[in-house]
Design goal:
alpha/beta; Rossmann fold; 10 helices; globular
Length: 259
């Protein structure tokens, strides 16, 4: 049986391997939550897209204990891990690529903000348009999308993109040297070998939840999809190399924008 303490240990190990790719991961979390807090609502309704085991969701609730955080992912093992570790969070099993996923969230009204970190790049550019279009239907006018990820500009500014990669690579080398944390694949091999996860791993295999490549790693993919979905004021709030926090504001309705 998966215990609360064991789940916390596995998530701590997850966080360490993620930091191997993102030495400034906690700084990006802080900037993202600063933006949520800046909405001025002590009890915002937040949707965490591709939440994994709940690392961002847990930090949000720690800073804003009155918030309602709905954490969404399609991976049964990661959801099981998060539910065991963070009983105060609401985890929802849903595939963002499937139309109708917002109907599974159990929302009583519009959400104030949607957040995501290191998750949406798994979704193809075509599917991303559907994700953002459906998200817009449950996000209040003026609400935010905050997406922290490696988003490249190589298709529009190739020299700048090369420099962004260099900045990230050098920071990683300075932080870890030759003592890099375990990688993503090694973490998965270890957790799926743990008997406590046998049932969840079987469910994961059945669901076909494994990832295969980075499908929408270009900043332009996200900007274009967000514009088509009715978001405005799209830009980068925080950046370190090609690691950035993208922000988009759901446009006000015409009557609201002229009121």
């Amino acid at each position: 049986m998966l215990t609360h303490d064991a789940a916390l240990d596995w998530i701590a190990r997850w966080d360490r391997q993620q930091e191997g790719y993102l030495p400034d991961r906690e700084e990006r979390f802080t900037a993202l939550i600063d933006a949520v807090e800046a909405l001025g609502r002590p009890d915002p309704v937040v949707i965490d897209l591709g939440c994994g085991p709940g690392s961002l969701s847990a930090r949000l609730l720690e800073r804003l204990p009155e918030a309602t955080v709905v954490s969404v992912d399609a991976d049964p093992l990661l959801l099981g891990l998060g539910r065991a570790a963070y009983p105060r969070l609401t985890f929802v099993a849903a595939d963002l690529r499937t139309s109708g996923w917002t109907g599974l969230l159990g929302l009583d009204g519009p959400a104030d903000v949607a957040v995501s970190t290191t998750a949406l790049h798994w979704i193809s550019g075509t599917e991303l348009k559907g994700v953002y279009a459906e998200l817009a239907t449950v996000l209040r006018p003026g609400g935010l999308l905050l997406n922290g990820d490696h988003l490249d500009t190589e298709d529009t500014t190739p020299t700048l993109s090369r420099l962004e990669h260099t900045v990230h690579e050098r920071e990683t080398a300075r932080t870890f040297g030759t003592n890099r944390p375990e990688d993503w694949r090694t973490w998965w091999e270890a957790i799926t070998a743990d008997p406590a996860f046998a049932a969840l791993n079987q469910e994961r295999t059945t669901a076909g939840a494994d990832h295969h490549g980075s499908e929408s790693h270009l900043l332009s993919h996200h900007v274009e999809a967000l514009k088509e979905a009715g978001f405005s004021e799209i830009g980068t709030l925080w950046q370190r190399g090609n690691n950035r926090l993208l922000c988009a504001v759901r446009a006000l309705e015409p009557a609201e924008s002229t009121a």
